[in-house]
Design brief:
single chain; mainly alpha; 52% helix; flat
């Protein structure tokens, strides 16, 4: 069975449209987007919403 990689997928098109809209809203600047997300989280936490903070996984280097 061969897969047509050029087939139209309405779900993917919707995802791409949402990504474009978000990118345009923040001037295509990932730092502005991250600042907006952090501010939104701070506002939610001030209203009592709690977020889980997971520790960063550190993998010990392999010994040769």
């Amino acid at each position: 069975m061969e897969i047509d990689m050029n087939a139209y997928d309405p779900v993917l098109e919707e995802i791409y449209a949402v990504r474009r809209k978000i990118s345009e809203r923040y001037g295509h600047n990932v730092y502005r987007l991250a600042d907006a997300v952090a501010e939104r989280q701070r506002m939610a936490e001030a209203k009592g919403r709690r977020y889980v903070r997971l520790p960063i996984a550190r993998i010990a280097p392999t010994k040769a």
